[in-house]
Amino acid sequence: MSDSRTHIEGASGIDLAYDRVKVSALIDQILAKAERNAFGASSLFAVRLAIEEAITNAFEHGHQGLDPATTVHIEYAVTENEIQVAVQDQGPGFSPEALPDPTLSENLAKPSGRGVMLMRAYMTDVDFNDAGNRVKLRYIRPAQ
Amino acid sequence: MTDSRLRISDNDGVTLVEFVDRNILDEANIQAINEEITAEIDSADIPKILISFSNVDHLSSAALGALITINNKIREKKGQLHLANIDPQIYEVFVITRLNKLFNIHETTDEARAAFNG
Q1: Range of the domain at A128
Q2: pLDDT, tens digit, for every residue of B75-103?
Q3: Which of A38, A39, A51, B97 is geometrically suited to a Cys-Cys bond with A34, CB 3.0 to 4.6 A?
Q4: What is this model's ipTM?
Q5: What is the CATH number of domain B6-115?
Q6: First to last CA, chain B
Q7: d(CA B71, CA A109)
Q8: How far is A6 from chain B (nearest CA, A)?
């Protein structure tokens, strides 16, 4: 369920099963809207990376053990100064606070565990719902 | 069998790996790349691998994970891995994750080649 932290007002929404072509097409569609709103190359890079990480997390971790056809719900809204994307899976959720810091020396050689930190590094805000199965990415246009 | 997503060539004992795709994001694609490079590592006594990112615009944490796995396998065989031609935006991802401390990263493939020992 979305809550006040992860709700997006006036969002467009879609349910997607894991189909790489459809996932890429949706991300391209969101970024095309951002580009029409004159977001620059570094913004588009940041938003693409964060959406990729959120969607990968939903399918790879959120849906671990579920039917591979289980869909993820994605909502987005692009305005003049803000890009918001929410990704919600149908899994039991997780606790983002419990994730180890992947930048600690003892974790550097571990191959996984960087998705959430990259989202946080590139987005203005990253919020999870209480269940931990919905994340909202919010990117505000940087000051000129 | 799917088409290779890599261009692989050998020169003076160093295996140069280049990517066909501009985006290294797709899990299945990353898995295929991992397997192909692993086969190169397995076939060498002491692997010397140079990965060039000259065509790459985007990569995900899953791709970073594959690179780490590759690096770990090369270290197990006492080999060497060097990375080169990384776009500044992607290099920032390495800096944010501190993986610039784990990998040997060079501006050009020539600089990377010169850094191989032995």
Answers
A1: 12-140
A2: 999 999 999 999 999 999 999 999 999 99
A3: A39
A4: 0.93
A5: 3.30.750.24
A6: 36
A7: 9
A8: 23
